Amino acid sequence: MKRQLAISTAGLIILALLTSGAVASSVNIESRIESVTVYPGEATVTRSGAVELPAGDQSVTFENIPHLADVSSFQVSTSGLDGVTILGLNHSEVNHLESQQKRVAELESRIKELEEIRLKEIDDHISVLGDEKNFLMTIGKTGTDEMTRQIAASTIDAVKWEAGMQFFGKKLRLVTDSLRYFSRERADISEKLKLLKEELAKSDASSGNRTRSVQIDVRLAGEGKVKLALTYMLPGASWTPLYDARYDPGTGKVRLDYFAEIVQRTGEDWDDVNITISTSRPSLNAGPGEITISRASIEAMPISNVDDLLQKSPGVVTTNRGEIRIRGGSAGEVSYLVDGANIGDPLGGYGPGGLGNLSSAIQKMIGFDISYLIIRKESIPSGDKSVRCPIAQWDFDAATNYICRPRNVTGVYRQATLTNNDRGVLMPGVVNIFVESGYLGKASVKETIVPGQAFELPFGLDNQITVKREIVSRKKSIFGGQEELSETVKITLKNHAPIPKTISLEEALPVSQHNQIKIKTKDIDPRPASIDEQGRAKWDITLAPDEEKIVTFSYRLGYPRGAVISGL
Asked: Are 366 and 257 within one domain?
């Protein structure tokens, strides 16, 4: 029969006050971390051990608990033996000054070895190899001059020169490769030295390596082997969602691998432990907190474009011809004409700017606070190393859209629409994009994807569709004080795939942002499905296998003579 008790710190204190009787001297228990639950900022650690105890009141101590452990989170449970009562829990701080001094000495010795031995050896190698390379380059220069002279004199021995050049090239490659190797070695050692010195600085600033000792008082009805488990919360651990998305052009399916990238700096290594990750945040307040008073006031509006700037600037005058004049002051009435001011343009950077699916990985789910059990035990050291742990994997029947914006890139991009048909949620995170086995780049899941919600991922260029955008005619004319620019644009799309494809073609038609610029768009063929107020035109073009289609449009742009036009 197996029975398990679990009592929190507060409950143990009350029980200890109600219980009398002396407790024997404490027995240290050998424990190891069995499981960890990682949250977005902290972790709950459970370590356990077993110890033989006689009947009566006994005391068991867990040593070397990280000093940062939240003492109010201590919980203890027992199993393996009937008739065990937990009487109380005490904890104390322990300073390990000797071990700290020993670590400092080890760090200083390691730094000295790297600086005075390894780095000097590498620098000597680099110096000798550098001299040898310079010597070879000098020989090569001299040899080239001599070869030129012999060619001119028709006395060259081609066989000897070929053998000499092969020897020279082989020797130069060997020296260059050796220089590259020792340079990498030096860079690696320099990085190790940096990390060691940072650790030494932290050790010197610390008063010693501190841990906690947790003593648990128990009462046994009879002797036997008792298993005790201690659970506590630690800061310094976190996980972030990470995805690999692989698109199969042949089937249109997308395989999505869901990972948790875990990093922890809790002060203790997690060796071969069961890992659970959770989307909940236990450190947040349990209640809503006090209401925040709302006080309305008027603040100065930020300047987001040139129009705002001109309206808020004293001394700026706009004439009835649209010219902008800045008055330099009443003395002299100095006037400056601002040429080519593009009204409405933004002010640069100063404006506003083998796995199962998720269901099989879910261990506990309350609303959208979900805990996922990692399928295998993991080892995650305390430090800066991150470990990627697989959560789930599943295949999507994606709806692939083809988007073409030839003014940006003359190609057609794939964009897949996926729907989360699982009962788990997908957290915001980085997505590594692959087409078959080829890596294309990174995208992102930008919001939490709940069950039933659709989301989109890009999958790069479709090389089976070719696009060509060209200006087939361009004409400039002058009429008195006005200039006129006329252009005709031709966009050609061709489908080389064995299946039909529908492309969403998007093109920005020119729109005036200045009252002195007049634009007329004409001869659009075929007519677009839509044109928005910003001039973005959209066509839905279906291409059969090996079919080609052409889109053309023209525009005429009039503006004051001599003005410099931007934005086209």
From this structure: yes
530 token code pair: 């839509």
Q: How far is the C-alpha of 314 from the C-alpha of 311, rounded, in Å?
A: 8
Same domain, 319 and 436: no
- The C-alpha atoms of residue 12 and residue 168 are separated, in whole angstroms, by 81
Rounded (5°) CA angle 524-527-528: 110
Helix (H) or strand (E) holding 338: strand 335-338
- Cα(284)–Cα(235) distance, rounded to whole angstroms? 13
Strands 518-525 and 548-560, how do they pair?
antiparallel
3-class state of residue 81 by DSSP: coil
Residue 242, token pair as written in the block: 């990470």
> Is 117 within the bounds of a domain?
yes
Q: Would residue 49 count as lying in a domain?
A: yes
Q: Which helix (H) or strand (E) holds 437?
A: none
In this prediction the pTM is 0.58
Is 116 found in the same domain as 194? yes
Q: What residue has token string 């080609």?
A: 548
CA distance 539 to 506: 7
The verdict on residue 325 lying in a domain is yes
Q: Which range marks the domain in which residue 258 is found?
A: 238-282+354-395+427-449
**Do 266 and 369 have their domain in common?**
yes
CA distance 309 to 315: 12
| 223 shares a domain with 92 | yes
The number of domains in the chain is 5
Secondary structure class of 33 (helix, strand, coil)? strand
What is the distance of C-alpha 111 from the center of its chain? 33
Per-residue pLDDT tens listing for the chain (568 residues): 344 444 444 444 444 433 444 445 789 999 999 999 999 889 999 999 999 999 999 999 999 899 889 999 999 999 888 899 999 899 998 876 666 677 778 888 888 888 888 888 889 889 988 888 888 788 777 777 776 777 777 777 777 767 777 777 788 888 888 888 888 888 988 988 888 888 777 665 554 578 899 999 999 999 999 999 999 999 999 999 999 999 998 888 999 999 999 999 998 999 999 999 998 877 555 555 566 565 555 554 444 444 554 454 444 455 544 444 444 333 333 333 333 333 232 223 222 224 555 555 555 555 556 788 888 899 999 888 889 999 888 888 889 999 999 988 888 999 999 999 887 788 899 999 999 888 888 999 999 898 899 999 999 889 899 999 999 999 988 888 888 889 999 999 999 999 999 999 999 888 887 788 888 888 899 999 999 888 889 999 999 999 999 999 998 988 888 777 776 6
Is residue 296 in a domain? no
Read off the tokens for 252.
């249109």
SS3 77: strand
Q: Which one, of 555, 354, 350, 413, lies nearest residue 471 by Cα? A: 555
Same domain, 371 and 248: yes
CA 7 from centre of chain: 40
Where residue 322 falls (left for φ over 0; alpha for ψ -120 to 50; beta otherwise) is left
